[in-house]
Specification:
Blueprint lengths: L7 H19 L16 H28 L2 H6 L9 H27 L4 H33 L12 H28 L10
Length: 201
Amino acid sequence: MDEPNPERPTEDLSLLNAAQVKTKSTTAPRPDYGKAEPQPFTEWISLFAITLVLSVLVFAIRLYFDIQFIDSSAYFYLSDQDTGLPILAPLMHIEVLLKAGELLTAICLLFLLAGKCRLFLKVVRIFLFVGLIYQVIEFAAGIYLRSDLIAIGVGEAGTTSLTPEFQLNVVLLVAPVSILLRIIWLTYFSTAEQVKKIFIN
């Protein structure tokens, strides 16, 4: 009959402890990346914030002048069926609605940016893309309408901030720059990996 080995219980206990340590190491909780602190704003984000504030002011000013123009006698003359361009009336109302939407969206983006919210990246991409399409259409429509307005004699008595000719001239000057800037910012917010580490709240 074999004699009992006094070292056997010690070996079994060591194996049991090793198995427990291995089990604990494999079932250790993963780090919670969702609680990571957002990184500080970069120079590019700060520049975009300034641009967004200026955009809010521009949208508000343009919206104000559009509403003033719709209430003027020049608008009724230019949108008349016989004396002007009937298509001007629906275009002006659509433009007012779009500018009001741009203004509200830009204000919401400022709050999302200040809070470093993750939703900011989705909203700003949609805002820039829709604005890019709108600027291209507005630029093309401005070229088309400008020739028609000149044909019916608009602007012969001088141009003011309330005349459609003045506003179209502003659009034709600003639209190409605005289109280029929107393409740059849309590319930045779509491809830059650093912005994903900033807007994580």
